[in-house]
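[Amino acid chain]
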Amino acid sequence: MSLLVTAILFALLGAIVFSLIGLISGTDETAIMVPLTLLVILLGAPPAAVFSFFMAAVLAKHLTHAVPTALMGIPGDTTAVPLIDHANTLRRMGMPHIALRKMISGGIIGAFIALPTAVLLGQFLGQFAEFFKSSTGIIFTLAAILIAFFSKGKWVSVLMIIPFAFFIKSLDLVSFSILDKHLSISFFLGIAIGPIFCDLLFATSSSAKKTIERDKPKEYHLAPETKTWKGYFPNPLKILTGRQQIFTSITTFISSLTFVFSPVGMTSLMGEIVGSRTKGAYKKSTTSLAVMNGVTESTYIAEVIIPLIAFGIPLSPVALGPGSPLFNAPPVFTVDPINNLHTYLTSWEFFLYGAIGLIVASLIAYPFSMNYARKASVLVMKLVSQEAIVAMFIGLACLLAFHEAQLVGIVLTFTVAAVGGLLNRILGIGAGVQFMIFYASTWIMMTLFGI
């Protein structure tokens, strides 16, 4: 089978799986994308196919996450949180279907602007690659400080860098003494599933359980479906007004260049800037939603592609979170020495196989969301248990950890998940900060203690 056909098939897989996952509210991107991407890599998919799978997954997830956000008023995932206010404004007006269409049409435009922009910027920054490769330890440490300061936890995230690095290195030394090899995937999985594992711990605690208990099931009111276009595949350029197209194009281009900043932060910032320049509640909300969902796509795509092409090391929040397996998935991909997609693909191949992923996801997730959003939402709410989804990803994490280090891997994964999850949920030290500290921990411990 040719590489092109293989890439298309994996893109198809990513688009279908993540189109369905996106319908489930509250699914954390890192917790679901890391295990599934790791699984694809460890099963032996070619690097090009892995990249197509990931690009399709990103676009599909961020198109269908608009469904629960717009129709039910609950964020589809963490990047959808800034969109809730404008989506609720249109829901109160009786137009959640308009909110949905604007969001996913903006996402399509944002994705296809981000891809060539990110490839070109990655090529330009590639001339500085040798400096970054020779200084990875200090760069990871400085980046950890920067990302920690701008995270939700702010100062506590900064203060916890050395203690968490000590914790990571201690576990690494213990596991090395048992297995005579350093582990990586088990640490990744622990950080990734930390928040959902923390919720499970809360549920088993007599004192903490009160924070997640509910007196009655939540009620959701879905508006009837209305269709204003002919055919199955609507034109996103006809869904958005000319002004909305311009704003979406400009903001997604700018956010593609700021690859070191938080996607949620950039989404909020661009939405505020555009919203402040748009009068009228309806126009302000529809324009802001198109722009903000476009920015969620552009930041995710650019923050993976630019570090991959330019450096081969994860130097952005997305590269450290959902995109981390593309950089480091031992024994297939590693960052020290650099042997990952940066090594295997040229800039042209990043563009080609990235485009395959985006096109396939667009052909599946976009018309699906536009035509069947309400029916899919009803089915998900009635038939899909969120507890079952959590259990599935916990089980997948166990499988991958066992594959790397048998029982030691599983114990290490849940140890990191417990500590990292509590730090995330209680102190606001997010997964991106924890991933960066993980990468910097060796240099920090060597510098401070010589180990």
